[in-house]
Amino acid sequence: MENLRKVAEARKILELNLLKQKMEIEASQCHLPDLDDFDRGAPDMTDTISRASALDPELSSYKEHNGLNTEDPLTRQGVGDDPTLEEVPATPLDELGKLQDSRGDHASGVPYSACTPISALKAEVATDQPVELGSGPFNPMEANFEQGLTIPQDEFTVVKYRKSRRKRSLKKNKDSANRKESLGPEQISEARKKRVTYNSLHFVVHVHTSFKPVNKLILLIFLSSLPRKVAENGKVYVWPKPISVEWGTTPLFSIPLSSNFEIAFPSHKTLSNAVSRCKRAVNLSKQWYPIERTGAKPAPISFTQLEKLNLVVFDLNADLQHGVDESYNLTVPANGTVATLSARTPWGAIWGLETFSQIVRRYNATSIYSRVIVGPVMIMDYPLFPHRGIVLDTSRNFYPVTDILRSIRALSYNKINVFHWHITDSHSFPLELPSEPALAHKGSYPGMTYTSQDVREIVEYGRNYGVRVIPEIDTPGHTLSWAKAYPEITTCSDLFWWEAGTSWDDRKASEPGSGHLNPLHPNTYKVVNNVVNDVASMFPDNFFHAGNDEIIPGCWMANSDIQKFVSGGGNLSEVLEKFVKETYPLITAHNKTVIYWEDVLLDEKIKVRPELLPKETTILQSWNNGPNNTKLITAAGYRTIVSSTDFFYLDCGHGGWLGNDSRYDKQVSDDGSPFNYAGGNGGSYCAPFKTWQRIYDYDITYGLSEEEAKLVLGAEVALWSEQADGTVLDARLWPRASAMAEILWSGNKDSSGQKRYAEAIDRLNQWRYRMVGRGINAEPLQPMWCLLNPGMCNLNQ
Fold this sequence. Notes:
30% of the residues lie in helices and 15% in strands. By secondary structure, it is of the alpha/beta class. The longest helix has 17 residues. About 28% of the residues have low confidence.
């Protein structure tokens, strides 16, 4: 305790006198960093130069000489480019001394690189009272330091950290119990070893010459900059949380990335683009650092710079299809300058690069170290579910290609690997097809279509980000948009969707925009065949979504041919079966697996027999009745994708969108069933709003047997676009879709089986801010005050 008191006193003395004195070390012209360079980092010179350039022409020349770019962020676009990221080289470490000299902090003009660095430091950890690292014990691990703090060559050197086992540490502690001495102001004789106790760390110092008081002060200041409790330092946030993260058991350090940092990788087009993105992400001039309470400190700066990331991929030929291996291992060692990322396939490597970019952070708000990585760390990671996606409806409202590309980037940031593109519906047919140009020409909103070139760009862009693009052409329901080009093959088109005075069962559609394909008209299958052939050739994914949901009896029964069929003893399920028999082979002929919405098998009124849906080539997407329908699908032996309305519909809870609705004109209470009051849905059939907590807490295999759970491929959150377009897209998707991303990647429970929503909120909150910094306009989850005051915004402590 006496030594700790002296450390505190020495540190206080320096803080009081640092601005009045210049530290000069006898027998050397070298200088030491300010104390603040260890504790909070020096001011960021890029920002300083940017603000002052206009006033001082000399700063502009300095900026050019050092390669500093302070212009606006890049706005270029293209496959593999991220227009939200600005590539700005970090200030080289050996420029630090020169920059400090320019501020007048030191008398010497000699930069640090002219001094002899600390060659080594040796620490033994007293393990009888371990320091916590998160929830685990603090144990020794090897760490080398080769650059950074420098001291006069003739004063002292310190030997490096090395591994120390518990038995050896305890033995040495016992043997030396009577030989411990404190460093005092007196001179220390040559080559005498003295042990300085600092919390649980024992530093062995080799003294070569007389140790003057000023130098003793410097040493104590250096020791005081090391972490007292690692659990409070060096926080990094990776979303989704990896399967396994093992932080080093030495004190964690913030390892600066070298100004010449590089990523070595095998020749591969997709990897090349991914590496370029990763390098831009870690080269931001204003890199991310977490929002934390005042006084929170990052881990101290390491003396080793990270020079390189070696990327190893074992199977470069693996295609981006369902079930591809997405695992990766990432290691940032403590005793070297090279990190390693290994993956079975390029698609796992993409996720590993994303993780690497997330564990790179800015040291703090003012530090010159704009790029540091907290280490040592080893991450072993893979997804729990192979299918992780979003559904985006581009029929009800149109989304420009740029919005879709931005969404694909955000998917990749969250390790979501499927963009389920619900391209067509009753409201518009925006996809231009070579064989059926009239569908888009007559069925789209004016000037709002996707060309073949647009589709190629979206598919290729997705591939570069590790995201599969699965098309959905919804049939035979939801097809009013086909009627403008082919009125003869549709039924109930242009009829009012629900006539006043009729029952819900007599409706023509479940929302405005009624129209179905007519399975009894022979020309129907000619058009569908052309559509399937064109779409299958445009989208290389092995999955093809063909809809088959919400077949409304009132729509089909409005057609005279179908009326005659039913009058002759047929039924509407047989009408649907005829459509499936004719169109299912059109899809599988392209070696595609068919995805249908669950209705085709589970609808109460119109459905097909299971024998018409081969399990080997059929996937059913669940959206009704939560876990109950998932159970029904998997119990029948079908693979499923979960998109429960009760948990995963992102459009829910925004109120109704129908006009001329008198139900809102209630000043005190509702007449009859609740609508505006007492928990009414306010016109949103799937209300309430699905919060991130609701999404995060969904167990998509709830109630399933082990064998049934194996049939759950994953899940998709859905954004239906009655009340959404590009202006609100980011906020509707993010960060709620991020909640789904984590539960599908690593689950929503900790190692003890407890739900981890309590600790997830701060991580998701930080991730939201980081996405905003990357150009994704995710909506806020809480006031920023909550991050600055951890735990104070919880319902329960």
